């Protein structure tokens, strides 16, 4: 079992890769502006194709399995 320092290092690597390979910042910025100026703001907004895929999976996959996959992708234990 890995401890907190190892988890932080693993998460740091995953985040660095996500930032490098993530959605276009301009796409995310447009959604932020939309959310900030929406007269009837929604609770959540989806920004970019990666977030859209995660949203779709979340609708069809049981919460426990979805959370487990997120932990695995982010190299977290528990």
Describe the model.
The protein has one domain (about 5-75). Helix content is about 70%, strand content about 0%. The N and C termini lie close together (about 10 Å). The chain has about 80 residues and is mostly helical.
Compact overview of the structure:
The protein is an all-alpha fold and 78 residues long.
Mean pLDDT: 82
Q: State the shape.
A: globular
> Helix- and strand-based class?
mainly alpha
Count of β-strands: 0
Order of helices and strands: HHHH
Number of domains: 1
Task: Please tag this protein with its features.
78 residues; single chain; mainly alpha
How are the SSEs ordered, and which strands pair?
Blueprint: H1 4-21, H2 25-37, H3 49-60, H4 63-73
């Amino acid at each position: 079992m890995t401890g907190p320092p190892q988890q932080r290092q693993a998460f740091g690597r995953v985040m660095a890769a996500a930032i490098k390979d993530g959605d276009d910042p301009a796409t995310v910025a447009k959604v932020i502006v939309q959310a900030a100026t929406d007269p009837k703001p929604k609770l959540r907004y989806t920004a970019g194709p990666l977030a859209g895929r995660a949203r779709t999976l979340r609708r069809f996959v049981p919460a426990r399995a979805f959370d487990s996959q997120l932990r695995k992708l982010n190299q977290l234990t528990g």
